[in-house]
Design goal:
Two copies of one chain form a homodimer.
Chain A: H1 4-22, E1 27-28, H2 30-37, H3 41-49, E2 61-62, H4 63-73, E3 80-85, H5 89-95, E4 104-111, E5 120-121, E6 124-128, H6 132-138, E7 143-146, H7 150-162, E8 167-170, E9 183-186, H8 189-205
Parallel strand pairs in A: 3-4, 3-7, 4-6, 7-8, 8-9
Antiparallel strand pairs in A: 1-2, 5-6
Helix pairs in contact in A: 1-2, 1-4, 2-3, 6-7
The complex binds nicotinamide-adenine-dinucleotide (2 copies).
């Protein structure tokens, strides 16, 4: 099994390759990627070596080929259907972000607030929350984003999992109990701020 | 140096202790915390042992004492002044979230858009971006949140660091070059979605 931090760095390398690709660069050295991503040259080579032998010593990596290969490894080379649960502050910000650039297509949103049902934000319609399972299954959705209050998170996850979802990204600060081998990933904004607070304290203690 | 994952789990234990504290619970066993946070009992005990000997074998931990101690370790026992740069989709969602519950007080926001300058969101006033350094220093701000487009992230970080900031939490998907020993933490929403995509692919490959 690949360490999660390697996968995170692959995503960072991909972003750097996008920037170089736009400039028409055809060859990239591991040293260049390392510098753009603020990691060591040997780490870049080690990360990429998990996936086969790309570069020629001293010449560098063929950029379009490397980029295509990482997109494939991450499963980003095909469109993934996504739904969003909870059209509040965070949900609204997510509906307005261009996730399509990486082949994530948010095709529906759900909310319990009757005042939000029927709205269309950035081309995405809001449906009533009780239709979550039914539409997830009918539309063949793979990923569900949870942006509901913590007390509604498990219930919302259950509705998505009943609809056959494969992965969940949750913003609610509460652990979700997975079912049927569903993958759960978290974005914990408040926790990141608390870790930052600890690190600042730590610097002061030294 | 403490592993970052231990600090992340401390934040999770704190959330569980908050829930139990509201119910008036006075004693908590490591097994209970482990169950609420979906980790093993031995991991809870190992994490807490970094900070001294809290619990008595078989009796459990004194909840108010343990909670107070973790708040102290994380530096959450005193108010931390925060500013937000970029009042767009993400920035607006952050201004509306009750960070005060953990002693983070957002006291000012900054934006380059003249249409946003002068607005007051959730009691927080928006100032022009060129005042970032001056007000950060004058108000003695410790933490800066960056929610500007990627191409403006380094410049915004430089303004915060010139103003004497101690830590930065950035939502922009670009590595920031730190100066004067400033701590930088990231929230990478798009990267979390890409990691989720990889994990889903991985499950299919097995
Ligand atoms: N806003 C932030 O900066 C921030 C920071 C940290 C954590 N979070 C977490 O992210 C989540 C979303 O936060 P927010 O600020 O957008 O909250 P919010 O209150 O603005 O929005 C929540 C939305 O979910 C809807 N909802 C409630 N129950 C539902 C259900 N069962 N099914 C579908 N929709 C439901 C509500 O009608 C509302 O529109 C919360 O769990 C919060 O703790 C947010
Ligand atoms: N919205 C999302 O779901 C999401 C997802 C992933 C990543 N992000 C990242 O988070 C950041 C914020 O995203 P957003 O969707 O809120 O963007 P946005 O475009 O809605 O908001 C950006 C705000 O920053 C302001 N701004 C621009 N330059 C500035 C400067 N130099 N100083 C101060 N303010 C400045 C703009 O006027 C605008 O109000 C971006 O870097 C984006 O890539 C957002």
């Amino acid at each position: 099994k690949l360490p999660r931090n390697t996968i995170r760095r692959l995503s960072h390398y991909l972003r750097c390759l996008d920037i170089l690709d736009l400039k028409g660069v055809q060859l990239v050295k591991s040293r260049e990627l390392a510098c753009m991503c603020r990691v060591s040259d040997s780490l870049v080579r080690r990360d990429l070596s998990y996936f086969g032998d790309f570069g020629k010593k001293g010449v560098g990596y063929n950029l379009p080929e490397l980029r295509e290969r990482i997109l494939q490894i991450m499963g980003l080379d095909k469109v993934r259907k996504v739904v969003l649960c909870g059209v509040g502050n965070i949900g609204t910000a997510l509906l307005r972000y261009p996730f399509k650039e990486r082949n994530f297509e948010i095709i529906a949103a759900f909310d319990t607030d009757p005042g939000k049902v029927g709205m269309v934000i950035n081309g995405i319609r809001v449906y009533p929350a009780e239709k979550t399972s039914e539409l997830t299954r009918e539309l063949g959705v793979e990923i569900g984003i949870i942006a509901v209050p913590p007390e509604a998170a498990q219930r919302t996850a259950d509705l998505l999992m009943e609809g056959g979802i494969e992965g969940i990204l949750s913003f609610a600060l509460i652990p979700i109990e997975p079912k049927n081998d569903v993958v759960i990933q978290y974005v914990e904004i408040a926790t990141e701020l608390e870790i930052l607070s600890f690190e600042i304290e730590e610097r002061k203690r030294r």
